[in-house]
């Protein structure tokens, strides 16, 4: 059972969607500051007859928009936050729109817009074919600081869904049938005693010494964690001047591992190391967990369905001009580096290809991505599927000025429209085919029978702390 109404809707409204995506790109608002971006998407949904709640889960830039009646309830997850310092013009050489300003270096302008397009197209299709069901669009802020969906999940916002769909701009077309690692973001504040470093060093207790000792300790720990675990840190405060014994110092850690439980275990050991370092330096330490996300739970039935949907919708064909632009953007990266970037998704040799035009077959071997996403938290609550579409040149690293440039051009626009079409097609079939949705839900139930979702945010989690960071 299939219908072309949703696909037709996206084609007929492509100009409007491109305009929306370009506006989000220009707003380029960072996590929890996405006021104009959130407003724009909410406005489009309201205009289409969706009932919109603003500021859900205590976040002013989050929203929930609902349309329809009865079941099934299909959720779409929209993101629209930009990254600091990645401002860039729509040109293939480094040229910030405004030096140091934020930019859409992860392509969330496209992400939010394709989700909007898919939801509106699905509504058009459901109206015309008289289908029962509810569409819920979640405006999820602050993905880049791993906050939005986790706070929304804690509030139970996704509980009503039968299935959730989303996507992410990438340099390849395919289903994201891959694991994302769990993560803790945590700051350690060390408090010592300030003193003159030359006249009275014996009276001082250096908080920076403690930070350095802690980092040495953690670097020894690396040998004793699984090889897929990642621990990275930056010293965010190491004192002011060499002649003042630092009375305060801070180090910020990300701890990642394939499973939530493993992150918890590594975090416990790192806290012990911090205590040990504080003791050695005669200081005190305080650990502040800023945010924590889960690993991703895959749903094979849903991913197979998404893969079929991707194969059924025509993927973008690139013009000479787009290929030229892409080639210019890849200058400065050697081919080996670029191929390494995509090797996690495909063994195909795409050397010499600038823009991906095929669709990768569904990968059955378990791929574990080294990064994290707050979509993972949703995946434990409700069957969640993610696709990716080619919106930038093959092998360009995410969070780069090259990516900011690409997602404002027809390359990004084509990838965004393709994603919207695949999502509406996949969602429409999930609504029409009760057996398909039942299979997807049964798999989810089986996978979560032993482990129910428990939000990993700390008890005293405060949005205002993260917001101020
Ligand atoms: Zn992203």
From TrEMBL:
A GO CC term attached to the entry: cytoplasm
GO molecular function terms listed in the Swiss-Prot or TrEMBL record: dipeptidase activity; para-aminobenzoyl-glutamate hydrolase activity
UniProt entry keywords in alphabetical sequence: Hydrolase
Peptidase M20 dimerisation domain segment(s): 185-276
GO biological process: folic acid catabolic process
One Pfam assignment: Peptidase_M20
Superkingdom, natural source: Bacteria
InterPro entries for this protein: Amidohydrolase, Aminobenzoyl-glu_utiliz_pB, Bact_exopeptidase_dim_dom, Peptidase_M20, Peptidase_M20/M20A_hydrolases, Peptidase_M20_dimer
Full protein name: Amidohydrolase
Species this protein is from: Desulfomonile tiedjei (strain ATCC 49306 / DSM 6799 / DCB-1)
